[in-house]
Amino acid sequence: MLHFHIISLFPETVKAYLEESILKRALKKGLIKVSFYNPKDFAPVSHNPELKEPVDDRPFGGGPGMVLKAEPFLKSIEKALKKSKNFEIVYFSPRGEKFNTEMAKAFAQKSLGEKEENKILTFLTKGFWKNKKLTDLILVSGRYEGIDSRVQEIYPGREISVGDYVLTGGEIPAMILIDSISRQLPGVLGNFNSLEEERISAGKYYTRPEKLRWKGKVYEVPRVLLSGNHKKIEEWKREN
Q1: 10-25 pLDDT, tens per residue?
Q2: How far apart are the C-alpha atoms of 146 and 165, rounded to whole Å?
Q3: So what's the architecture of 2-194 in CATH?
């Protein structure tokens, strides 16, 4: 089982996504596990015992925006590490290594262990994965201008980007990783053949009814898809 540890100022954003579809079933089946750590819970207490200090502050050297303080994130990571065995820490950054399906397979493969039988392709990158089983993935979600750089100095990790654009926070990238990695694990999808990258996938899709009547016109399913000739169907998919 792969255990995802989400460090986020807005954990409810991710929790809502996990309550849907295949991820919800995967959690119930015990195929994956997700824990949350909110840095706000680790913010220092202010002079008023009923209040906590903010988790962000102005950057040294000037500049726009606010920077997230190191201590609340360090304590969050520290708590996650106490529950982790063989872990990797991921920091989300537009400057990071581009996330893709091959990387998702690598994470999943290492969580299964080399001796377990599975249909996942082994994809080892940059020696990062060699001789290391993965049980825990700690995903650090930042906000604003970013997290104080001393956090990564103390707890080094892997910087990952989900695309060439800037997002408001790391919660969406965290959801992308959880979704993409989890679906590579046996048992998460009802049918392993549902993995689009493992089969020939057409650019066009059709289902019942065979004839769709819409505003006086009839739209039919391509006859080849109804032929039962699998060879011709696969050729049609390649063409499309």
Answers
A1: 999 999 999 988 999 9
A2: 15
A3: 3-Layer(aba) Sandwich (3.40)
